[in-house]
Design brief:
By secondary structure, the protein is an all-alpha fold. 60% of the residues lie in helices and 0% in strands. The protein has 5 helices and no strands. It has helices at 24-64, 69-86, 95-103, 117-120, 129-147. Helix 1 (24-64) runs antiparallel to helix 2 (69-86). The radius of gyration is 32 Å and the shape is rod-shaped.
Length: 151
C-alpha cells in the first residue's frame, strides 16, 4: 500500500480524568483537615466543660454559705484556693498585696473597686445585698481566670 492511500487520522488525546475517585493525596488532605477540626472541637468542648464545672463549684460554695458576709468569706476562700494553683506563695499574701494579686494585670477592680470588700467584708456584721452581689461577681470572674491559669 502506498502512503498516500493509508487512512490516517489526526492525533486524538484521551479524555481528561474524572474528578472521582479522588487521588490519594486528596484523601490525605481531607483526612488531615478532619483530624485538625476534630482536635480543635475536642479542645473547645473540654475547656468549655471544665469552665462549667468551675462555675458550678463556685456557685455551689456560695449557695452553701449563709447570706451576707458568709458569702464573701466563701468567695475569698475559693479565690485563695485558685491562687494557690497558680502561685503557691499567693496564699501567704495579706491586705493590699492580696488585692493587687487579685487585680492581676492593669485592672483595679479589687484594690480600689468593689472587690475591696473581700478584705474585711466577711467580718462585717451587715452589708448591703448589692455590694455583696457585685463583689461576688468580681470574685467569680477572677476565680475562673485563676483556675484557667491567667494571671
Amino acid at each position: 500500500m502506498m502512503a498516500a492511500q493509508l487512512p490516517l487520522r489526526d492525533v486524538h488525546l484521551p479524555a481528561a480524568p474524572g474528578w472521582w475517585p479522588l487521588a490519594p493525596g486528596w484523601w490525605l488532605v481531607i483526612g488531615a483537615v478532619l483530624l485538625v477540626v476534630l482536635v480543635v472541637l475536642a479542645i473547645y468542648f473540654f475547656r468549655r466543660r471544665r469552665m462549667q464545672r468551675w462555675m458550678a463549684l463556685f456557685d455551689r460554695q456560695l449557695q452553701a454559705a449563709a447570706q451576707g458576709p458568709a458569702q464573701l468569706a466563701a468567695a475569698s476562700e475559693l479565690l485563695r484556693r485558685a491562687a494557690r494553683q497558680l502561685d503557691p506563695q499567693a496564699v501567704q499574701l495579706q491586705g493590699e498585696a492580696w488585692l493587687r494579686f487579685l487585680d492581676g494585670g492593669n485592672r483595679k477592680d479589687f484594690s480600689s473597686g468593689a472587690g475591696r470588700l473581700l478584705l474585711d467584708g466577711g467580718f462585717r456584721p451587715q452589708l448591703e445585698g448589692e455590694q455583696i452581689e457585685h463583689a461576688c461577681q468580681l470574685a467569680r470572674a477572677r476565680f475562673l481566670e485563676l483556675m484557667a491559669g491567667r494571671r
